[in-house]
Amino acid sequence: MTSPFYATVGFEVDETTAHGAVVRANELEPLRNREGWCHGGAIAALADAAATQAAARSGGAGRGSATVELTVSYLDSAVEGPLVARGEVVAVHDRRIEVRVEIRANDRVVAVARAMVVRGRT
């Protein structure tokens, strides 16, 4: 389950498990800001993609689900790629799925995020 948005920005779902997912951006050039670093909005979008993919694997999120909260802490600049976001479900509260995401660039942690994904009503 991917989105046309992923193709537009160059995100690929790299790996999935029962409670997690890895989403990758191999090409950073179109995601750079004027300083030459990967734009913070692109990092947040990658974190969101990893969170929603992880939530979908946890059994229940999917069609009609949406990220309702996303907090990103930027720890370092991302100058070289690939950019890899690993999302892992940490808790399920009824319709709400809490996901932790770690974003790495060239094996360095550049950001961490927490997301709350609400699964759609069936």
Largest sheet: 6 strands, antiparallel
Gyration radius over CA? 14 Å
Low-confidence stretches: none
Structural class from helices and strands? alpha+beta
Report the top-level CATH class: Alpha Beta
Helical amount: 10-25%
Q: Give the mean pLDDT.
A: 88
Task: Give me the side-by-side strand order of the main sheet.
Answer: 1-2-4-5-6-3
**How many E strands?**
6
Q: What's the number of structural domains?
A: 1
CATH superfamily: Hotdog Thioesterase
CATH architecture name: Roll
* CATH fold-level assignment: Thiol Ester Dehydrase, Chain A
Distance between the termini: 17 Å
Which shape, going by the Cα principal axes? globular
Query: How many DSSP helices?
Result: 2
Question: H/E element string?
Answer: HEEHEEEE
Please report which band the strand proportion falls in: under 5%, 5-15%, 15-25%, 25-35%, 35-45% or over 45%.
35-45%
Give a summary of the structure in a few sentences.
20% of the residues lie in helices and 44% in strands. The chain is α+β, with helices and mostly antiparallel strands and 122 residues long. Strands 1-2-4-5-6-3 form a six-stranded antiparallel sheet.
Q: What do you see in this structure?
A:
By secondary structure, the chain is an alpha+beta fold. It has one domain (4-118): Thiol Ester Dehydrase, Chain A. Helix content is 20%, strand content 44%. It has two helices and six strands. A six-stranded antiparallel β-sheet has the order 1-2-4-5-6-3. A hairpin with a 2-residue loop joins strand 1 (11-17) and strand 2 (20-25). It is globular. The two termini are 17 Å apart. The model has no long low-confidence stretch (mean pLDDT 88).
